[in-house]
Amino acid sequence: MEELVKALDSELEYVRHEFIGEMINIHVASTRKEPRCPYCGFASERVHSHYERRFKDLPIQGIKVEIVIKNRKMFCLNKECSHKTFAESFECLAFKGKRSRRLTEEILKIALEVSSVTASKLLRKGIAEVGKSTICDLLKKTGIRSEKGRSEKSLHR
Description:
Elements: H1 2-8, E1 12-20, E2 23-30, E3 47-60, E4 63-75, E5 85-87, H2 101-111, H3 116-126, H4 132-142, H5 147-156
Helix pairs in contact: 3-4
């Protein structure tokens, strides 16, 4: 399991996992000694608080995966920084993201081939619970449109 977590982000370590219904929750923790403030770049080892952060990832052996991080909120030690605190961030996850970057890429790959309704149905079967509006939002954010999506829009006008 440690190798799977390291493939997600090299600065995370496996803590434990648990099966809940048809899903596996993988608990992880950061290995960073001094996370950097995303606003000014200063390193900090002063912890403000902890909170639980959850996000979806690609399935393992057809089982849906949720990653659970005991995330740290840190004090920024730079007196000139406009932020007094910041939350630790990770490469595998967009700011305030609910899905790993690799899951988002998989969703977009499928959404480019079929309509958003069909993509949603395909994804729900074994990859992730994703609605058609979420798929449309992801396509808008990336500026990508599938050929199927264009033809769907012209039918609705």
